[in-house]
């Protein structure tokens, strides 16, 4: 059983920064982050869950248009942790942020393609 545990959320003024972390634990083995596509999603109240970014097994990254140039996804394979560095935050970034993973290469940011999910961490950006 794999567990993904997010941390790092909080409240921040617009223009500020936060770094989210997602640690994989349980029956992961030592190479979970290497073997899995890791991604971040977010869901605001009364809105659908949307993909934010992914990092693939070959370290290829992808970002949704609204966060390009402001967010950076990266990972520590040795610790099985994936991060989301969020800079120049805007009120519209306010949402619950979820970490997700799927075995193998990343193909897209459709939630249905990800098998493992964390419980989420809340990010609130106030103006």
Please tell me about this protein's structure:
This protein is mainly β and 127 residues long. It contains one helix and eleven strands, in the order βββαββββββββ. It has one helix at residues 32-35; strands at 2-7, 10-13, 18-26, 36-43, 50-55, 61-63, 71-76, 81-86, 95-103, 116-117, 121-126. Strands 2, 4, 5, 6, 9, 10 and 11 form a seven-stranded mixed beta sheet that branches. Strands 1-3-8-7 form a four-stranded antiparallel beta sheet, with no helix packed on it. Strand 4 and strand 5 (50-55) form a beta hairpin. It is globular, with a radius of gyration of 14 Å. It starts with a strand and ends with a strand.
Strand content: over 45%
User: Which series of helices and strands comes N to C?
Assistant: EEEHEEEEEEEE
Helix content: under 10%
How would you characterize the largest beta sheet?
7 strands, mixed
Computed structural class: mainly beta
Extract low-pLDDT stretches: none
The helix count comes to: 1
- Shape designation: globular
Radius of gyration over alpha carbons? 14 Å
Overall pLDDT metric: 95
- Terminal Cα span: 40 Å
How many β strands by DSSP? 11
Summarize this structure as a short list of keywords or feature phrases:
single chain, mainly beta, 7-stranded mixed β-sheet, globular
Layout of helices and strands:
Blueprint: E1 2-7, E2 10-13, E3 18-26, H1 32-35, E4 36-43, E5 50-55, E6 61-63, E7 71-76, E8 81-86, E9 95-103, E10 116-117, E11 121-126
Parallel strand pairs: 2-11
Antiparallel strand pairs: 1-3, 3-8, 4-5, 4-9, 5-6, 7-8, 9-10, 9-11
């Amino acid at each position: 059983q794999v567990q993904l545990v997010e941390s790092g959320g909080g409240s921040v003024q617009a223009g500020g920064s936060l770094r989210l972390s997602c640690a994989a634990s349980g029956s992961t083995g030592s190479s979970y982050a290497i073997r899995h596509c890791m991604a971040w999603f977010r869901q605001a109240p009364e809105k659908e869950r949307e993909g934010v970014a992914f990092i693939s097994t070959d370290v290829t990254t992808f970002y949704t248009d609204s966060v390009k140039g402001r967010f950076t996804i990266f990972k520590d394979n040795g610790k099985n942790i994936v991060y989301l560095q969020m800079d120049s935050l805007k009120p519209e970034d306010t949402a619950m942020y979820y970490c997700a993973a799927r075995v193998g290469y990343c193909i897209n940011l459709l939630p249905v393609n990800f098998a493992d999910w964390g419980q989420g961490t809340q990010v609130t950006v106030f103006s």
